[in-house]
Protein backbone atom coordinates (compact mmCIF):
# COMPACT_ATOMS: atom_id res chain seq x y z
CA UNK A 1 0.00 0.00 0.00
CA UNK A 2 1.28 3.39 -0.96
CA UNK A 3 1.67 6.03 1.74
CA UNK A 4 2.35 8.84 -0.73
CA UNK A 5 -0.16 11.63 -0.16
CA UNK A 6 -2.49 12.77 -2.95
CA UNK A 7 -2.81 16.53 -2.85
CA UNK A 8 -6.24 18.20 -2.96
CA UNK A 9 -6.98 20.89 -5.58
CA UNK A 10 -6.56 23.50 -2.86
CA UNK A 11 -3.17 22.09 -1.83
CA UNK A 12 -2.08 21.97 -5.48
CA UNK A 13 -2.96 25.67 -5.85
CA UNK A 14 -0.83 26.44 -2.78
CA UNK A 15 2.06 24.39 -4.18
CA UNK A 16 1.84 26.19 -7.54
CA UNK A 17 2.31 29.52 -5.80
CA UNK A 18 5.15 28.27 -3.56
CA UNK A 19 6.85 26.71 -6.59
CA UNK A 20 6.66 29.88 -8.66
CA UNK A 21 8.03 31.95 -5.78
CA UNK A 22 10.93 29.52 -5.23
CA UNK A 23 11.80 29.85 -8.92
CA UNK A 24 11.52 33.65 -8.78
CA UNK A 25 14.17 33.75 -6.04
CA UNK A 26 16.56 32.08 -8.51
CA UNK A 27 15.57 34.61 -11.19
CA UNK A 28 16.18 37.45 -8.75
CA UNK A 29 19.62 36.28 -7.63
CA UNK A 30 20.97 35.41 -11.10
CA UNK A 31 22.57 38.82 -11.93
CA UNK A 32 24.40 38.82 -8.58
CA UNK A 33 26.10 35.46 -9.18
CA UNK A 34 29.42 36.71 -10.54
CA UNK A 35 33.14 37.03 -9.91
CA UNK A 36 33.96 38.48 -6.47
CA UNK A 37 30.63 37.90 -4.69
CA UNK A 38 30.64 35.80 -1.52
CA UNK A 39 28.22 32.95 -0.97
CA UNK A 40 27.19 34.72 2.25
CA UNK A 41 26.17 37.80 0.27
CA UNK A 42 24.04 35.65 -2.06
CA UNK A 43 22.37 34.17 1.02
CA UNK A 44 21.71 37.61 2.51
CA UNK A 45 20.21 38.92 -0.75
CA UNK A 46 17.95 35.87 -1.20
CA UNK A 47 16.87 35.94 2.44
CA UNK A 48 15.91 39.62 2.25
CA UNK A 49 14.05 39.10 -1.04
CA UNK A 50 12.06 36.20 0.41
CA UNK A 51 11.10 37.94 3.62
CA UNK A 52 10.70 41.54 2.47
CA UNK A 53 9.50 41.23 -1.15
CA UNK A 54 7.77 37.85 -1.35
CA UNK A 55 6.51 37.33 2.16
CA UNK A 56 7.97 33.83 2.10
CA UNK A 57 9.99 31.97 4.73
CA UNK A 58 13.30 30.27 3.84
CA UNK A 59 12.69 26.60 4.66
CA UNK A 60 16.36 25.69 5.29
CA UNK A 61 16.89 28.23 8.11
CA UNK A 62 17.00 26.24 11.37
CA UNK A 63 15.86 23.11 9.52
CA UNK A 64 16.95 20.23 11.74
CA UNK A 65 16.33 16.65 10.57
CA UNK A 66 17.09 13.88 13.10
CA UNK A 67 20.85 13.56 13.62
CA UNK A 68 21.62 17.03 12.26
CA UNK A 69 22.37 20.40 13.83
CA UNK A 70 20.02 23.25 12.81
CA UNK A 71 20.89 24.55 9.31
CA UNK A 72 22.23 28.09 9.88
CA UNK A 73 21.36 29.88 6.61
CA UNK A 74 18.47 30.60 4.22
CA UNK A 75 19.82 28.89 1.09
CA UNK A 76 22.39 26.25 0.06
CA UNK A 77 25.42 27.27 -2.03
CA UNK A 78 27.37 24.28 -3.35
CA UNK A 79 30.59 25.26 -5.16
CA UNK A 80 32.69 23.00 -7.46
CA UNK A 81 33.30 19.69 -5.60
CA UNK A 82 30.51 20.40 -3.10
CA UNK A 83 27.67 18.02 -3.95
CA UNK A 84 24.94 19.60 -1.82
CA UNK A 85 24.10 21.49 1.39
CA UNK A 86 26.99 23.95 1.10
CA UNK A 87 26.60 26.58 3.84
CA UNK A 88 26.94 30.19 2.62
CA UNK A 89 29.80 32.12 4.21
CA UNK A 90 33.02 34.01 3.38
CA UNK A 91 33.80 32.03 0.24
CA UNK A 92 34.46 34.37 -2.69
CA UNK A 93 33.25 33.09 -6.04
CA UNK A 94 35.84 33.46 -8.78
CA UNK A 95 36.01 32.98 -12.54
CA UNK A 96 35.84 29.31 -13.46
CA UNK A 97 33.79 28.29 -10.41
CA UNK A 98 30.48 26.46 -10.80
CA UNK A 99 27.87 26.82 -8.09
CA UNK A 100 24.49 25.30 -7.35
CA UNK A 101 22.00 27.54 -5.58
CA UNK A 102 19.24 25.55 -3.88
CA UNK A 103 16.22 27.58 -2.80
CA UNK A 104 13.26 26.34 -0.78
CA UNK A 105 10.55 28.81 0.25
CA UNK A 106 7.47 28.36 2.40
CA UNK A 107 4.33 30.29 1.37
CA UNK A 108 1.06 29.85 3.29
CA UNK A 109 2.53 26.65 4.74
CA UNK A 110 3.45 25.13 1.36
CA UNK A 111 7.02 24.37 0.22
CA UNK A 112 8.53 25.09 -3.22
CA UNK A 113 11.99 23.55 -3.75
CA UNK A 114 14.32 24.09 -6.71
CA UNK A 115 17.93 24.59 -7.70
CA UNK A 116 19.99 25.67 -10.69
CA UNK A 117 23.66 25.66 -11.69
CA UNK A 118 25.53 28.91 -12.32
CA UNK A 119 28.90 29.56 -13.98
CA UNK A 120 31.22 32.30 -12.76
CA UNK A 121 32.78 33.70 -15.93
CA UNK A 122 33.72 31.08 -18.50
CA UNK A 123 33.47 27.47 -17.24
CA UNK A 124 35.82 24.67 -18.21
CA UNK A 125 34.58 22.36 -20.96
CA UNK A 126 34.13 19.64 -18.34
CA UNK A 127 32.11 21.86 -16.00
CA UNK A 128 29.79 22.98 -18.79
CA UNK A 129 29.26 19.45 -20.01
CA UNK A 130 28.66 18.07 -16.51
CA UNK A 131 26.06 20.76 -15.86
CA UNK A 132 24.36 20.14 -19.20
CA UNK A 133 24.26 16.37 -18.78
CA UNK A 134 22.89 16.79 -15.23
CA UNK A 135 20.18 19.11 -16.59
CA UNK A 136 19.31 16.47 -19.19
CA UNK A 137 19.23 13.84 -16.44
CA UNK A 138 16.70 15.88 -14.44
CA UNK A 139 14.53 16.44 -17.50
CA UNK A 140 14.70 12.82 -18.67
CA UNK A 141 13.44 11.92 -15.18
CA UNK A 142 10.67 14.53 -15.36
CA UNK A 143 9.61 13.26 -18.78
CA UNK A 144 8.84 9.82 -17.27
CA UNK A 145 6.27 11.26 -14.85
CA UNK A 146 2.66 10.23 -15.51
CA UNK A 147 0.00 8.15 -13.75
CA UNK A 148 0.93 4.46 -13.89
CA UNK A 149 4.66 5.07 -14.25
CA UNK A 150 6.94 3.79 -11.48
CA UNK A 151 9.49 5.71 -9.44
CA UNK A 152 12.11 3.25 -10.72
CA UNK A 153 11.48 4.50 -14.27
CA UNK A 154 12.71 7.94 -13.20
CA UNK A 155 15.80 6.66 -11.43
CA UNK A 156 16.69 4.36 -14.29
CA UNK A 157 16.66 6.98 -17.02
CA UNK A 158 18.73 9.38 -14.89
CA UNK A 159 21.34 6.74 -14.04
CA UNK A 160 21.53 5.52 -17.62
CA UNK A 161 22.15 8.98 -19.04
CA UNK A 162 24.72 9.96 -16.38
CA UNK A 163 26.72 6.74 -16.69
CA UNK A 164 26.55 6.73 -20.49
CA UNK A 165 28.37 10.06 -20.30
CA UNK A 166 31.02 8.70 -17.94
CA UNK A 167 29.61 10.30 -14.81
CA UNK A 168 28.31 8.82 -11.54
CA UNK A 169 25.09 9.23 -9.54
CA UNK A 170 25.22 10.16 -5.85
CA UNK A 171 23.24 7.56 -3.86
CA UNK A 172 23.05 9.07 -0.38
CA UNK A 173 20.66 11.90 -1.29
CA UNK A 174 17.49 11.76 -3.33
CA UNK A 175 14.39 13.64 -4.42
CA UNK A 176 11.43 13.66 -2.06
CA UNK A 177 7.74 14.14 -1.63
CA UNK A 178 6.92 17.72 -0.62
CA UNK A 179 3.93 19.75 0.50
CA UNK A 180 3.21 21.22 3.91
CA UNK A 181 6.22 19.10 4.93
CA UNK A 182 9.67 19.86 3.41
CA UNK A 183 10.75 16.23 3.03
CA UNK A 184 8.03 13.55 2.99
CA UNK A 185 7.42 10.24 1.24
CA UNK A 186 8.36 9.06 -1.29
CA UNK A 187 12.13 9.00 -1.70
CA UNK A 188 12.87 9.66 -5.37
CA UNK A 189 16.08 7.76 -6.11
CA UNK A 190 18.17 8.94 -9.04
CA UNK A 191 19.16 5.38 -9.96
CA UNK A 192 17.20 2.14 -10.33
CA UNK A 193 15.31 -0.23 -12.57
CA UNK A 194 12.24 0.41 -14.75
CA UNK A 195 8.94 -0.91 -13.41
CA UNK A 196 10.13 -1.02 -9.79
CA UNK A 197 9.06 0.92 -6.69
CA UNK A 198 5.84 2.90 -6.18
CA UNK A 199 3.36 3.53 -8.96
CA UNK A 200 2.60 7.21 -9.60
CA UNK A 201 -0.90 8.68 -9.28
CA UNK A 202 -2.30 12.06 -10.23
CA UNK A 203 -2.00 14.51 -7.34
CA UNK A 204 1.37 13.31 -6.05
CA UNK A 205 4.03 16.03 -5.72
CA UNK A 206 7.76 15.37 -5.41
CA UNK A 207 11.13 16.75 -6.40
CA UNK A 208 13.59 15.36 -8.92
CA UNK A 209 17.10 16.62 -8.07
CA UNK A 210 19.93 14.45 -9.41
CA UNK A 211 23.43 15.01 -8.02
CA UNK A 212 25.92 13.88 -10.67
CA UNK A 213 29.69 13.63 -10.14
CA UNK A 214 32.33 13.96 -12.84
CA UNK A 215 34.36 11.28 -11.04
CA UNK A 216 33.39 8.59 -8.59
CA UNK A 217 30.09 8.64 -6.74
CA UNK A 218 31.59 8.44 -3.22
CA UNK A 219 30.95 11.33 -0.83
CA UNK A 220 32.58 12.80 2.26
CA UNK A 221 30.91 14.90 4.93
CA UNK A 222 32.56 18.07 6.21
CA UNK A 223 32.97 18.90 9.90
CA UNK A 224 30.19 21.49 9.78
CA UNK A 225 27.69 18.62 9.82
CA UNK A 226 26.05 19.65 6.52
CA UNK A 227 28.42 20.21 3.60
CA UNK A 228 28.80 17.16 1.36
CA UNK A 229 31.74 16.92 -1.07
CA UNK A 230 32.93 14.38 -3.60
CA UNK A 231 35.47 12.05 -2.00
CA UNK A 232 37.75 12.24 -5.04
CA UNK A 233 37.39 16.06 -5.26
CA UNK A 234 35.84 15.84 -8.71
CA UNK A 235 33.21 18.38 -9.77
CA UNK A 236 29.55 17.75 -8.94
CA UNK A 237 26.41 19.26 -10.44
CA UNK A 238 22.72 19.32 -9.49
CA UNK A 239 19.44 20.68 -10.84
CA UNK A 240 16.08 20.46 -9.08
CA UNK A 241 12.40 21.00 -9.87
CA UNK A 242 9.22 20.30 -7.88
CA UNK A 243 6.83 18.21 -10.01
CA UNK A 244 3.08 17.51 -9.86
CA UNK A 245 1.73 14.26 -11.36
CA UNK A 246 -1.25 15.28 -13.54
CA UNK A 247 -3.95 13.12 -15.20
CA UNK A 248 -1.96 13.17 -18.45
CA UNK A 249 1.66 13.53 -17.32
CA UNK A 250 3.40 16.17 -15.26
CA UNK A 251 3.42 19.85 -14.38
CA UNK A 252 6.62 21.62 -13.31
CA UNK A 253 5.57 23.69 -10.29
CA UNK A 254 8.87 25.57 -9.88
CA UNK A 255 8.42 27.75 -12.95
CA UNK A 256 8.83 31.45 -13.52
CA UNK A 257 9.92 33.90 -16.23
CA UNK A 258 13.59 32.93 -15.85
CA UNK A 259 13.20 29.14 -15.81
CA UNK A 260 15.53 27.64 -18.42
CA UNK A 261 13.67 25.75 -21.19
CA UNK A 262 13.80 21.95 -21.37
CA UNK A 263 16.93 20.63 -23.12
CA UNK A 264 16.86 19.64 -26.78
CA UNK A 265 16.82 15.89 -25.99
CA UNK A 266 13.33 16.26 -24.51
CA UNK A 267 10.67 15.78 -27.20
CA UNK A 268 13.37 15.99 -29.83
CA UNK A 269 12.14 14.30 -33.01
CA UNK A 270 13.72 10.93 -33.65
CA UNK A 271 16.96 11.25 -35.57
CA UNK A 272 16.48 10.57 -39.26
CA UNK A 273 18.73 7.83 -40.56
CA UNK A 274 20.96 8.97 -43.40
CA UNK A 275 20.11 7.32 -46.71
N1 LIG B 1 16.78 22.00 -0.63
C1 LIG B 1 17.39 20.76 -0.29
C2 LIG B 1 16.61 19.70 -1.03
O1 LIG B 1 16.53 19.80 -2.20
C3 LIG B 1 17.39 20.50 1.18
C4 LIG B 1 18.26 21.43 1.91
S1 LIG B 1 18.13 21.09 3.58
C5 LIG B 1 19.04 22.33 4.24
O2 LIG B 1 16.00 18.80 -0.51
F1 LIG B 1 18.75 22.37 5.49
F2 LIG B 1 20.27 22.11 3.97
F3 LIG B 1 18.70 23.44 3.65
CO1 LIG C 1 14.65 18.94 -2.59
CO1 LIG D 1 16.38 21.78 -2.86
UniProtKB/TrEMBL annotation:
Cofactor names: Co(2+); Zn(2+); Mn(2+); Fe(2+)
Catalytic activity: Release of N-terminal amino acids, preferentially methionine, from peptides and arylamides
EC code(s) of this entry: 3.4.11.18
MF GO annotations: initiator methionyl aminopeptidase activity
Record-listed a divalent metal cation 2 binding positions: 113, 176, 209, 240
Cofactor remark: Binds 2 divalent metal cations per subunit. Has a high-affinity and a low affinity metal-binding site. The true nature of the physiological cofactor is under debate. The enzyme is active with cobalt, zinc, manganese or divalent iron ions. Most likely, methionine aminopeptidases function as mononuclear Fe(2+)-metalloproteases under physiological conditions, and the catalytically relevant metal-binding site has been assigned to the histidine-containing high-affinity site.
InterPro entries listed in its UniProt record: Creatinase/aminopeptidase-like, Pept_M24, Pept_M24_MAP, Pept_M24A_MAP1
Record-listed substrate binding positions: 85, 183
Annotated binding of a divalent metal cation 1, by residue: 102, 113, 240
Keywords associated with the record: Aminopeptidase, Hydrolase, Metal-binding, Protease
Residues of the Peptidase M24 domain: 13-247
TM region(s), chain numbering: none
Gene3D superfamilies: Creatinase/methionine aminopeptidase superfamily (3.90.230.10)
Enzyme class at the top of the EC tree: hydrolase
Description of how the protein assembles with itself and partners: Monomer.
Database matches in PANTHER family: METHIONINE AMINOPEPTIDASE
HAMAP family (UniProt xref): MetAP_1 (MF_01974)
Entry function: Removes the N-terminal methionine from nascent proteins. The N-terminal methionine is often cleaved when the second residue in the primary sequence is small and uncharged (Met-Ala-, Cys, Gly, Pro, Ser, Thr, or Val). Requires deformylation of the N(alpha)-formylated initiator methionine before it can be hydrolyzed.
Family: Belongs to the peptidase M24A family. Methionine aminopeptidase type 1 subfamily.
Name of this protein: Methionine aminopeptidase
Gene (UniProt): map
Amino acid sequence: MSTISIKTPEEIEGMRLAGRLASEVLDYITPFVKNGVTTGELDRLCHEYMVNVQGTVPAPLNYCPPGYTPYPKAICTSVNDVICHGIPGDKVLKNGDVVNLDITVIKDGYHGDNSRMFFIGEPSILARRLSEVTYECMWLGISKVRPGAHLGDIGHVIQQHAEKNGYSVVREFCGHGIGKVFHEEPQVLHYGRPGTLEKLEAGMIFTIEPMINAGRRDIREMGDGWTIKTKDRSLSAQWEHTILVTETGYEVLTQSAGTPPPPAIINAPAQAVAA
